[in-house]
Amino acid sequence: MAFKGTFVTYGRGTAVVVATGMQTELGRIAKMLQEDETLTPLQQRMASFGKKLSVLVLFLCILFFVAGWLRGEDVVKILLTSISLAVAAIPEALPAVITISLALAAKRMIRFNSLIRKLPAVETLGSVTYICTDKTGTLTKNNMHVEDVFVNGKQYERNALSTIKQEGDVMLLLHAFALNNDAVEGVDKIIKGDSTEIALMEVSNEQNIQSDTWPRLAEIAFDADRKLMTTFHSHDNKIISFTKGAPDILLQRCVNVDTPALQQQVDGMAAKGHRILGFAYRYWNTLPENPDSETHETVLQFLGLTGIIDPPREEVFDAVAQCKTAGIVPVMITGDHPLTAKTIAQRIGILSSEKDLVITGQQLDALDNDSFLAKVEKIKVYARVSPEQKLQIVKTLQQKGHYVAMTGDGVNDAPSLKRANIGIAMGITGTDVSKEAAHMILLDDNFSTIVKAVWEGRRIYDNILKFIKYLMTTNSGELWTLLLGPMIGLPVALLPIHILWINLVSDGLPAISLSFEKAEKDIMNRPPRPPQQSVFANGRGLHMIWVGMLMAGIALSAQAWAISHGLHWQTIVFNVLCLSQMGHVLAIRSENQSLFSIGIFSNKQLIVAVVIALLLQFVITYTPFLQPVFQTEALTLNEFLCVGVASSLVFFAVEIEKIISRKKGK
Predict the structure, then answer these.
(1) Is 134 a catalytic residue?
(2) pLDDT digits (tens, 9 = 90+) for 602-658
(3) Is 327 strand, coil or helix?
(4) Which domains does the chain have, with CATH numbers?
(5) Around Cβ 164, how many Cβ atoms within 10 Å?
(6) Which of 74, 134, 188, 310 is catalytic?
């Protein structure tokens, strides 16, 4: 069967089309890829935030308009003021700030060997609760090495082969290593191909067995479902076929074998963390025409076993431990023997409790949806699973409310990569289709890189929350200033151009600079944020209200004082609100730590942004040709000093709030 998308490189043949379009294998995968993508946590939170904010702003504007109308104020004036209220409440800079900060984070993540293909993935990484990862090449070095060989009923170490190769079936097994093999040795003596086949060819080369000794006449290619590969060769005027594959499948095809004893041998080798391959052979009188698995991979003669080790990467041990500290569950998905997978998982810390389960693809098929849903959170290792089952794993974990990162490299992995909250394709071994479907590409195929990306995702989400807090607190201050001023008999404090300047210029640069803020010390010692958690949670909403009211209180007090003394009251209020923002942005750089403990200059970009914002404020206040545009007047030195002192109150108030928070935490 040749699937759509297959390349024919040589030979002649007649093809019978049995399916077209969406009925082909590629069509089936394409159909699976048509599923709608789920919204990221940030998109969900911002959608909820936008709806709540819109309702609140509409209510306040109507309330303000009705109150003014009942007081007998001019309808046009009160309508324009209500519109100004809406402008003050909506953070116009927020979408741009979020997009820019995500883009800057994606640029930084290239240094961690993480290529972000879909921008929202940066933030989603911070909410990941499960990382489902391949074993070979991701958790391990993908540098296969044959350690043990079982042949003639005995187990030998690799270095003993040269002394026993003339005994019994040893020479035949060595030929199977070389001939049932698609690895290719170049003129530079470098072997290219699958890492397992490279390991087998290295052993046959050591024993001077060449891959072209017995010409290959036909083959039944390896198939992930059948887990076998067979090649047919000419030898001494006979035809011999070699079959290699998963021992549990291969032994079912062999005759005259003590299956329980051999299975015990397989389990013993797998328990050492070895990947086990079985080999068998069969002689034929003539070369079979159109060989197929059902007919020509049966009645085989068992030949031997190999134990191949793929050692874990050194950095994986710390990465897995860091995952668990961060409340993230690492799960291994592999095509290996379950005992091999279990041993590696125990060694690197994925399996750390007796309650942790190991399940095979066959066992998974036997479970109905409800049974799998009930135990999915206990399963830490999936062995011998198909790509379709990877998609099932993702969907089931998502049903339990988890945010899932899934790795993959093949065409068949594309549906599970697309369905996962974070699909991670392999940059070295991954196919173009898997990379297209993924949200992120691992340029080094390394599990520890995923953990670094999660760290960056958490950092950027923390910073997004900081500039939402910053922007919304400022807007809250403007809103209360405009809303409460007329109610206590003061004129409307700000003009529309003042509101736009604050929302776009004074807000924008410092907010973007917050994305450069360093990570909090406990960033990987806390669980992932619940996907349903609002941006107002953990006291942020309360902070926005009370600090906003403090800003408004200071601004309105300054307005009343300035009016009573015949000063430039509107320019004073405008500057008080702008300078209060600068004090606020410096104070919220850390959720709990004081500005002085994290270092004033630890975020140089923010300090530069604050200085630029202050200079711009100074320019529009004191430059004569800009004063008519912004309706400002030059302040005296005493007026400006009073503005500075009043504005600094916000900084000290937020620092006191953090001191109280730290004491409560202790």
Answers:
(1) yes
(2) 999 999 999 999 999 999 999 999 999 888 999 988 888 999 999 999 999 999 999
(3) coil
(4) 53-109+455-519+535-665 (1.20.1110.10), 127-141+313-445 (3.40.50.1000), 145-309 (3.40.1110.10)
(5) 15
(6) 134
